[in-house]
Amino acid sequence: MTTRRFTDDFPDSESESTVRPLSENSVSERPPEPKPQRPNPPRNPSQGASRGNTHMPRTLAQVMSEANERVVRGDLVDYVPMPTGFDPLDGFIGGGLRKTELVLLGGAQGIGKTIATLQIARNIAMRPDQYAFYLSYEHTETHLMHRLLCMESINPPEIDLGHGIRLRDLYQIIVAQRAKEFMGRDGGAGSLQEILHDNPKTAPALARMARYADRMILVKASPAVTTLRAIKEMTARLCEATGGNVTVFVDYLQKIAVHPERPRDENDKVTMIVEGLKDVALSLDVPVWSIVAADRDGLKSKRIHLFHLRGSSALDYESDIAIIMNNKYQIMSKDHVAFNPYTAKQFRDWVVFTVEKNRAGRSMQDMEFQLFGQHFGFDPKGQKVQQQLIDDKVIES
What we know:
The protein is of the alpha/beta class. The protein has helices at 6-9, 45-52, 60-72, 89-92, 113-125, 141-154, 167-183, 192-198, 203-210, 228-242, 266-284, 296-300, 314-318, 328-331; strands at 102-107, 131-136, 216-220, 246-251, 288-293, 321-327, 350-358, 365-372, 377-378, 383-384, 388-389, 393-394. Strands 1, 2, 3, 4, 5, 6, 7, 8, 9 and 10 form a 10-stranded mixed beta sheet that branches. It has a two-stranded antiparallel sheet with strand order 11-12. Strand 11 (388-389) and strand 12 form a beta hairpin. The protein starts with 5 loop residues before the first helix and ends with a strand.
């Protein structure tokens, strides 16, 4: 199958060999008016019938025949998950993300939800046949690019802190080099790419980021205008341009605009949004991963759970997988024999990921990952939690 390049439909994109700084206007929030054609064109001949008849009744024999044709053609996307790159999370959720599934990630503010989500998007975009579509209602595309540079400086999963750079280090490098240029000193670089390429601390990170820069699509979404309809239209265009090999990431769910609909309250709004995201996953045959904020009671709780996420019960009903993040130090049982207040500092940089809902596997599974917050990255080589956590849960190896 011949896959069209994303740049065929978006001519402003750069090639994989270069990385240009992204501006807030680099990707339009409102996609152009669609051309007179079917809104959701099939990715390949084997998918034309199934996608075109998504809402039409079919006999089981027809479904079996279409599935058989896809397997014969070598189209195994329905059977092969896309690993997130976080172990053992992939093992608990059946190997990774699957098309048509909606995954929710919740937790307190500052726990690392955006860090984990952007790192997983990067891991998927690293695959030469996959694209990550990241919509951020919180950060500009340029800020996300800076975060990726900091993360690439420690090179997960190797985690080389010796060459790691922080955000302030990155800013100082850029400002210092531009000052040299302004003062007319030798060695002063002009463009951002020249500065990053010539500096020994940032050059390796830039080279690593260049490997997937052409497959990471970023949007600075607006809580006022980036509606569910706009998200679906942009995703449909990307599916057409990339052969359907797109994973959608939303940061974060409660900020998606729902107008012209008029929800009665926040619960009604969240119901509309989560049902809309599930529809995007099902109708466009893509995985959707969305961050969800915790409510006020959840922020006061010692340990956040799925029912603490801000909104309605639809979050539980519509999601296929729900993962909740908590700081390990805060949810460890203080009377556990392994808890020592003098050595407890080591747990402050660890985050527990709990799979609280898993439609196709085991739920209430806890695993932990070390967070390197200054470098905007996790060590993806996690492990099951061995200590006792609050809620009288004991996790065994």
